[in-house]
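User: I'm putting together notes for a lab meeting next week and I want to include a structural view of one of the chains we've been expressing. I don't have a solved structure, so I'd like a prediction I can at least talk through. The sequence is below, exactly as it appears in our construct file.
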Amino acid sequence: MCCQRVRDGINSGCFKIRSLRKKQAVSIDQHNTNVEGIPQEHSVGGIPPSGYKILGLCFPAYRSPIVQALLVSLVQLLVVGIHNVLQALGGSGQVNPTTSNNANTILYSFFAAFSLLAGSVTNYFGPKWTLATGGIGYSLLAASFWCYNHTKNRGFVYFAGAACGISAAFLWTAAGSLIMSLPLEKDKGRYISMFYGFQFTGSVIGAIIPTVENYSVKTAGTVNDGTYIGLFILMFSGSIVALLPVRESHRGMPPRKLLTVGEPKAGDYIALLTFYGCIDGAWQTFAWWIMGALSNDPITLSIYSSFYKVFGAAGAAIVFSLDNYGVAYTVMFGSYWGLLVGSMLLVAWLIYKRVEDSSDKKL
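Assistant: Thanks for the context. Below is the predicted structure for the 363-residue chain, given as structure tokens.
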């Protein structure tokens, strides 16, 4: 009888210890969920990776959230950041913007449609392989305009636009899921800001290519092959990294002389574009922070990210189509601000009703 009581006491004590350890591990690491290909800050007992010390400097471990977030941000820099350079060329570097507008309408239509499926695809294949597909479609679009310079093959450009739209849906969904789920709740804003900071840095760095390649050009014309080749190489390299985790004129009637940086009007356009970039980055960061505040679960966040891009891509497809139909810029400008004000009312309601200090309660 005595021995039986001792055994019962030992078993009861072991059970309590195991339960306590389990609760401690969950408490320490409750925000982390292992995502295929992107290890997070977890290990036995919830102890984070120790990192490395080289020449007196401490470096985070490869599987730490910050390093994984940096890799995802680097993919964004090489793919989306460089793609923004292609878009900023005006008509994707072509004199007549019709082909580019049609390709972008196709791109964002496919982007919106496939974003509805991208969350499920990301959850099935894992974010690493889904993210890696992004650079393929984006780089194909640059290659198509390189080909268009010589063959005027619109079909290839439109096909590349569709491929880019599909790739964009997968890339943004995978990236959004990772950036919003990797950090602790207190670090989400910092990680999202870093992510978009890398993207806009890519646009600044990538802009050096067309500037250098076409610096001596004084009249309107298509950009040279070197520009498209450089953009293609950078965007395609983003897929490789992912595998480690103007002057006023009528449309179609370009000005005879380009607006140069030294002209008085140039400063106004540069300032306007700079402020646009700042507001765009702040807006995107704010939107992702709100989604990140709604949940910590990567699967749930992949769905949020994909639906977020559905509406953005659908809007972009409509805009490029309106531009092709010659809708006045004042009309488009007014519609943008109307939609913006209306959306802010909805966002204010969402923040008031759903955003809390912690995301422990899943929606």
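A couple of points you could mention at the meeting. Confidence is low (pLDDT under 50) at residues 1-46, 246-256. The beta strands are 52-54, 57-59.

User: Perfect, that's what I needed.
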